Fold this sequence. Notes:
The protein has 174 residues and is mostly helical. It has one domain. It has helices at 12-18, 20-33, 51-74, 77-87, 91-96, 101-128, 138-144, 152-168, 170-173. Helix 3 (51-74) runs antiparallel to helix 6 (101-128). Residues 1-18, 35-41 and 169-174 have low confidence and may be disordered.
Amino acid sequence: MIVSDPFGALGPAKSASLGLGKAVEALNTLGSSMTNLNLSSGFVPRAATKGNIISILAFEVANTIVKGATLMQSLSKENIEHLKEVGLPLEGVQCLVSKDMEDLLRIAAADKREELKIFSSEVVRFGNRCKDPQWHNLHRYFEKMGIEVVTQKQLKGRSRSSDAAIDDHGPVYS
């Protein structure tokens, strides 16, 4: 699956500032290089003899594939146009977040970059568990592309801080 250029809707100057190009490039590269993830391709966990671990990893891989596909779809030209024309102009968004469309686009782009970081970290983790060494150290590839890879420890820390923020603001959402 190849993501079409989502920048026709945003214009070349804005798309560069939003950093969505790197996300599209990374997802397209991953999608085209990981077309054959079967047992013969070497994409097998090290603990292949433990059925429970493989079952859990299979669900994790499936969830990561869905996450990547969803991210790619969200970066399509049609979805970005829909966001700009329908989602961001909503009165609730304008009142709660910002009336400035540039700010809203920056927030949306930052959110997509964060999704890409999390997706990339999951791909790196699975790559490091492969028998075939060609999939090891994918974090170096992402670093060359300018994508920060988030470690599991960082994800847990972010999760705890997000939970704390939600607890602090709980009465606002009640």
